[in-house]
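The material for today's practical consists of a large collection of protein records. An example says more than a description, so a record of this kind follows:
***
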Amino acid sequence: MPNNSYSRFVSYAKVILPLASLALLSTLFLFARTNSDVDTIPYAEIEDIASKPRLAGPNISGVTVDGDTFAVSAKVARPLEDSSAFAVEQIAINLQTGDGRSVNIGAGVGEVDTSSRLVNLHNLVRLDATDGYLMETQGLNADLDAGTVESIAPLEVRAPYGALTAGHLSITRGSEGAHIVFNQGVRLVYQPQQ
């Protein structure tokens, strides 16, 4: 008798288990949803990127006429047609003066001309100096040979002595050091040091 119940169990299992697996598979297909969030491969964008030459993470460094050192780096640089200039993204410039001061300049986009050593920066340019100056503007031009910087848009400055806004800034190197000139509607809020 025990063998008879085992035989019945096996015969039922031969029918029930395939039916159960068929029910599971049909449930899987019935309730399966198509994933509409799957990104398609942008072949047009890939072809566009591949057709244009570019440099990833370029770095340029050198020495100015006055002996100050500079380093220029960017996330991406693309050569501009018929020139020695590059269009750059997320550019960073570091200037080290002979007297030990350092200036860091960063911007969203810009152009760097390697032959004339000129840099034009746009899209929220930020200048941060070790002597406590922080400046933000929408555009700067820098001459790496001469060590000069000039704004092309209004600017805001935070300094050790307070806050300043102006329409224009120029920084030049002279025999006695850097000369910083603010003009075009200068407004200064002076905060005396404690």
User: Anything to note?
Assistant: Residues 163 and 189 are 5 Å apart (CA to CA). The longest strand covers residues 85-96.
